[in-house]
Amino acid sequence: MHEIDFLPVGDGARSGDAIALRYGNLKGTRAEQTVIVIDGGFSDDGEALVELIKTHYDTGRVDVVLGTHLEQDHIGGLAVVLRKLEVGQLWMHQPWVHSSALAESRSARFSNLHLSERLQESMRNASDLEDIAGDLEIPIVEPFTGLATPDGCFYVIGPDRAYYEELLGLLPQQETTAAAVLRKLAEAVQTPLCKS
């Protein structure tokens, strides 16, 4: 059995940027279930996810929190989920691990890049989310093709590492700047990430 809850995000005109799901024996014990959060909307949406999981799912533990991509309307609420629930793993991309230009820019909070404020904010929030997970000792795993929950029921179908790095502009024959890397990353947000 499975259950999927799509929460409205922002002004409620959209849904799908904050999703909670659980599967397994839903009438059994928590040990017989897997609970996953996919994206968290904005901060207020993260609060709604926490409330849903605590009251409707009757648990304070989430097995996997997945950030499909780094835009604020997808990861903003995940910080709330990490802080208020016990989380087994955080699945999120860390573009600064794949790009020396982004790694250098990270220490300047991405303000030294010629990017829109929206992209800078997305990168800062993702970096902060990584820091929160580190402080709470929540393992971070980058969600590349083939990554799966231990039961194999929920798995990532794309992107693979090579495609992701290609999108970041990290092919050996190309010179990259941090701005070019982030532009390609912004284009990549339309790539489907996972299947359940």
Could you characterize what this model shows?
With 196 residues, this protein is an alpha/beta fold. The protein has a single domain (2-195), classed as Metallo-beta-lactamase, Chain A (4-Layer Sandwich). The protein has helices at residues 43-55, 72-75, 78-84, 95-98, 100-106, 117-135, 161-167, 178-188, and strands at 2-9, 14-24, 33-40, 61-66, 86-91, 140-141, 155-156, 194-195. The chain has a six-stranded mixed β-sheet. Strands 7-8 form a two-stranded antiparallel ribbon. The longest helix has 19 residues, at 117-135. It starts with a strand and ends with a strand.
Low-confidence stretches: 170-175, 190-196
Count of DSSP H/I helices: 8
Q: Order of strands across the biggest sheet?
A: 1-2-3-4-5-6
Going by helix content, strand content and strand pairing, the class is alpha/beta
Outline: globular
CATH class: Alpha Beta
Short description:
By secondary structure, the protein is α/β, with parallel strands linked by helices.
